[in-house]
Amino acid sequence: MAVGDDGNVYVSDRDNNRIQVFDSQGKFLRKWGGFGSGDGELRWPQGIAISNDGNVYVSDRGNDRIQVFDLQGGFIRKWGATGNGDGDLRFPQGMAISAMATSTCQIKVTIGFRFLVHWVNSF
Question: Which fold is adopted by the domain 2-121?
Fold first, then answer.
């Protein structure tokens, strides 16, 4: 779960393969995702975080990748692939973002007992 600057609550709904958004009073606003492996589709999403520039980062656990969306659910980009090499992911779970500057943020993803740190230049 993550809370945006607008006070809306973004929930990673793992078993329904979607992200749901609620206002601060709990009223349903919108959803996106759906089961699959295409851009914007999710397979057991887990960790979720919102960057300072308003992008929503989702650990797409079943697809071994991270997906990035705008606050309305529009697909922006993805990274990661199944494997054990540098930059590969295996069932990414937790997600945290720490702002390092106005144009760069550090993404931390938990994968079992290890962490992946990914630097992103915001745009």
Answer: Neuraminidase (2.120.10)
Residue length of the chain: 123
- Tens of pLDDT along the chain (123 residues) come to 999 998 999 999 999 999 999 999 999 999 999 999 999 999 999 989 998 889 999 999 999 988 999 999 999 999 887 877 777 677 777 777 765 544 444 555 555 554 555 445 543
- 3-8's contacts with Cβ under 8 Å and 24+ in sequence apart are 3/50, 4/50, 4/54, 4/71, 5/50, 5/54, 6/71, 8/71
**Reduced to 3 states, what is the DSSP secondary structure of residue 3?**
strand
Q: Which two tokens stand for residue 1?
A: 């779960």
b or e along 45-57 (b: 16 or more beta carbons within 10 Å of the residue's beta carbon)?
Answer: bbbbbbbeeebbb
Two tokens at 11?
């929930």
Q: Residue 89 gets which letter from DSSP?
A: B
Domain boundaries, the chain: 2-121
